[in-house]
Amino acid sequence: MKLPEGFIPVMLTPFTTDLQVDYSCLRQLTEFYLDAGSVGLFANCLSSEMYELSDEERLKVIETVVNQVAGRVPVVATGTFGGNIQEMAAFSKKVYALGVDAVIILNNQFVNETESDEIFLTRMHAWLDLTSGIPFGIYECPVPYKRLVSIPVLENLLATGRLCYHKDTSLNIHEVAAKINAGGTQVFGVYDAYIEHAVASLEAGSKGLSCIQGNYFPELIVELCRNPSKSQAIQDFMSENMQLMHDTYPTSAKYVLQQMGFPIDLATRRNVGTLQVEQKEALDRLIEERKRRFT
Predict the structure, then answer these.
(1) Minimal CA–CA distance to 96: which of 130, 72, 121, 68?
(2) Which of 170, 233, 239, 241 is nearest to 206 (CA)?
């Protein structure tokens, strides 16, 4: 499975005011990302509040996105949430059966912080044996702890021929470049999460971006990936406002979308606090700055 080059959003999950998943809004949100020019979608990720969803909700969220996309772009989704290898493999197969193009594994679910890469690979290959033929990706998810993928681990997994996506959260352009080089000409792509070196990452050969800034202004991240002449200006704008975008996320992203006319509620199950008046005012200024600089 070879994923296209460009922006693959880490999708939000809309909720109703009583904190039920709003599947109708999720279908609209899927179209919103596609209309912005996204080349794929990453459903059931950290931005989706995946840890706050039940297994049944995770599967229904993924199914809703896959059905709405209807084959127009690839969809990838997380399939490993703790438990033993057999349990993670069984859930991954349920995810794949919904029609996703690749199942994303969270490497921090296979080992704890003190266990070695060798132990990770042993368990990872057991998962691979139990999920024969399923294309997969790796997400260096920072929750519950961040575990970076070493080059030897990456090379080992690339040799399976099934690894197609890697969401890098190293925040280190040298690490990103090394992973790109390790991938060579295989059906493998690095999609960077770190906006501050997005231009350098794309110039080094990353396939695209999977960053939270795309949940504020997805059309700008699409433009950054497509248009080198505007990329630095967009990166600078996003970098200058990075802290604001991270504060109370994903509620802050939902607020910006709402203010720009998208019908999403601010409800979130993640405990990120309530948007204060001064934060809303800062986000309102962010929207105006985006219009001023990129309209």
Answers:
(1) 130
(2) 170
Q: What are the phi and psi torsion angles at 280 (to 5°)?
A: -60, -40
CA distance linking residue 10 with residue 60, whole number of Å:
17
SS (H, E, C) the chain: CCCCCEECCECCCCECCCCCECHHHHHHHHHHHHHHCCCCEEECCHHHCHHHCCHHHHHHHHHHHHHHHCCCCCEEEECCCCCCHHHHHHHHHHHHHCCCCEEEEEHHHCCCCCCCHHHHHHHHHHHHHHCCCCCEEEECCCCCCCCCCCHHHHHHHHCCCCEEEEEECCCCHHHHHHHHHHHCCCCCEEEECCHHHHHHHHHHCCCEECCHHHHCCHHHHHHHHHCHHHHHHHHHHHHHCHHHHHCCCCHHHHHHHHHCCCCCCCCCCCCCCCCCHHHHHHHHHHHHHHHHHHC
Q: Kindly report the backbone phi and psi dihedral angles of residue 72, in degrees, each rounded to the nearest multiple of 5, phi listed first.
A: -70, -35
Between CA 160 and CA 284 the distance in angstroms is 48
Query: What tokens were used for 147?
Result: 């575990």
Whether this model's pTM surpasses 0.90: yes
For the stretch 84-130, pLDDT in tens is 999 999 999 999 999 999 999 999 999 999 999 999 999 999 999 99
